[in-house]
Amino acid sequence: MEGFEGWDDYAPFYDWENAQTLGRRDVPFWRNLALNAGGRVLELGCGTGRVSLPLARAGVRIVGVDRSSAMLALARQRRHRGGLHRQLGLVQADIRHLPFPSATASSVRTGPHDSVAMVMAPYGILQSLLSERDLTRTLSEIHRVLRPNGTFGLELVADLPSWEEYRKRVSLKGWRGRRGGTHLTLIETVRQDRARRRTVFDQEFVERRGRQSRVHRFSLAFRTLSVPQMTRRLERAGFEIATLLGDYRGREWDERADVWIILAKKAVVK
């Protein structure tokens, strides 16, 4: 299984599920960080625009990158409704091969084509890179496009290896849109593949409208990386760790925290 599998299938349900779980708790954190970045921002795995769109509305010049055409189709619809074409770019691409020019030591301009001042990878997107080779390649690409002393912010899904394994559990249920529209039920199975350091979520969305129902099945896999493991990889890729955070309000990180955020800087070569 590759880490990009399942995301096209997930697209119609992504916002409904996240509205009931994470919601937008992380958006103010990323917005404040981006507004102080001093230039263009790049979001990896932007999906339906859950984070990119409110940042663009706040005045951030941002480009969202995602491999999933289905996710990006929803993001483009919302960008159009919000009139945010000038503020938000959306690019379909593989984050292992970013389609942007390399930053240089003199990348300090602030014009419309300036280099990337900040790269953000919210909510575990880098954990969908299931092999060490893919993660190394992606970190190298981020380092390449980020201007010297630029910020790289990423979040890991906290302590995936400790997630309880279970089978066919009803995790969520409710209406999408107004009552009387579509009723959704999420039936979930969690599997731990400890030999390959992966956590797999088998998703089964039951979509019911009136007397008709339809079942959508797919799986999402995430690599289980700790904060110390990721910081070592970042340092090898040429980043300096700025801070480790344990929530969206700036609390210091420890391994028991519910939120794992790493902020790093691209080291300036002297």
Spatial shape:
globular
SSE series: HHEHEHEEHEEEEEHEE
Distance between the termini: 42 Å
The main sheet comes to:
7 strands, mixed
| Helical amount | 10-25%
User: Could you give the order of strands across the largest sheet?
Assistant: 3-2-1-4-5-11-10
Give the amount of beta strand, in percent.
Answer: 25-35%
Low-confidence stretches: 109-113
Overall pLDDT level: 92
Note the total helix count.
6
Q: What would you report as the Rg, rounded to the nearest angstrom?
A: 19 Å
Structural class: alpha/beta
Number of strands: 11
Offer a few descriptive terms.
6 helices; seven-stranded mixed beta sheet; alpha/beta; four-stranded antiparallel beta sheet; 25% helix
Describe the overall structure:
The protein is 25% helix and 34% strand. The chain is built from 6 helices and 11 strands. The strands form 2 sheets. A 7-stranded mixed β-sheet has the order 3-2-1-4-5-11-10, with helices on both faces. α1 (7-20) crosses α4. The protein is globular and about 65 Å long. The model is unreliable at 109-113 (pLDDT under 50).
Task: Explain briefly what this protein structure is.
Helices cover 25% and strands 34% of the residues. It has 270 residues and is an alpha/beta fold.
Topology of this protein?
Layout: H1 7-20, H2 27-35, E1 40-44, H3 52-57, E2 62-66, H4 69-82, E3 88-92, E4 116-121, H5 132-145, E5 146-156, E6 166-176, E7 182-193, E8 198-209, E9 212-223, H6 227-236, E10 239-245, E11 260-266
Parallel strand pairs: 1-2, 1-4, 2-3, 4-5
Antiparallel strand pairs: 5-11, 6-7, 7-8, 8-9, 10-11
